[in-house]
Amino acid sequence: MKEIATDISIEQNSLGLYTGIIQSEMGMVLIDSPLRPVDGGFWKGRVDQDESCHICYMIVLDTNYDRLLSIKGTECAIVAHSGAITPIRSRPPRVSEDAQQHLENPETITGGTRMLPPEIVFDTELSLHVDDLQVDLEHHAGSNHAGVWVVVPERKVVFVGDAVVVEQPPFLAYANLETWEADLEFLLSEKFKDYMVVSSRSGVVDRDQIKAMIRQIANFRSTFEVLKERNALLEEWHSTIPQFLARFSQLDLFNSDLFYNRLHWGITTYYELNCREKG
């Protein structure tokens, strides 16, 4: 576990997500969670062992499958955007292609994992107060229709989920690319000047990496707009995957398969949600 600011730490869970913990004298806010029950027990143990810790929230940053899997294992109140309710309740207990690639390691999912609906939901913004520390939740629908950013103004830290990823393709399935660009421009605005920005896939990221993400999303958007104008078939959309992958310099054999599957599944879902009725 790495402390990045007073009372705020991050750690990678067994799926590679950078999860956060905001610890105050009287409470705790978890940003996502470890996947495995044994890891969940670690977080839960910290709450149980500290008798002064009476408040515990777990914030779910979006509806990506590995993130939904990670919310089981603690007794914290689950907080999510209202758009996450249906996916959390109805998503079948199976692993997508991309999630399967994440799980090709010794730490596998145990049987019986199920999704839990959140106890607290919001539409646009919500503020949590743990002791004197304010934790602001903002809805940012660019990278995911139920995307949440967690802002801690007093510590100048913001958790942005999958809005920024470094040296890897984005999750496109439930994205709004135009909104995503606007979200990233906002992240570079005066409001977040001097903030530490935490990506769920890449840890702490800098402004240059955010600018690179803007260029990446703009490239996807311009390519997709041309395909939509031509009423291109799904096969033609899939044919763009190699050119997108060629932009990433650090691809080993495992990541190549992982990122191909991520783009294939993401583009397929994006097409079905945005273009099928126009085909």
Structure description:
- This protein has helices at 37-49, 65-69, 85-90, 97-102, 177-187, 207-229, 234-238, 241-245, 253-274; strands at 2-5, 8-12, 18-23, 27-31, 55-59, 77-81, 120-122, 125-130, 133-139, 148-152, 157-159, 196-199, 203-205.
- The chain is an alpha/beta fold and 279 residues long.
- It has one domain: Ribonuclease Z/Hydroxyacylglutathione hydrolase-like (Metallo-beta-lactamase, Chain A), CATH 3.60.15.
- Strands 1-2-3-4-5-6-7 form a seven-stranded mixed beta sheet, with no helix packed on it. Strands 8-9-10-11-12-13 form a six-stranded mixed beta sheet.
- A hairpin with a 2-residue loop joins strand 1 (2-5) and strand 2 (8-12).
- The radius of gyration is 19 Å and the shape is globular.
Q: Major beta sheet, specifics?
A: 7 strands, mixed
Task: Give the overall shape, derived from the CA principal axes.
Answer: globular
The CATH class turns out to be Alpha Beta
Named at the architecture level, the CATH assignment is: 4-Layer Sandwich
H/I helix tally: 9
Order of helices and strands: EEEEHEHEHHEEEEEHEEHHHH
Q: What fold name stands as the CATH topology? A: Metallo-beta-lactamase, Chain A
CATH-level-4 superfamily name: Ribonuclease Z/Hydroxyacylglutathione hydrolase-like
Query: How helix-rich are the residues, as a percent range?
Result: 25-40%
- Nearest-integer average pLDDT: 83
Strands, count? 13
Order of strands, widest sheet: 1-2-3-4-5-6-7
Through-space gap between termini: 49 Å
Count of discrete domains: 1
Q: Label the structural class.
A: alpha/beta
Specify Rg, calculated over alpha carbons.
19 Å
What fraction strand? 15-25%
Low-confidence stretches: 36-42, 90-114
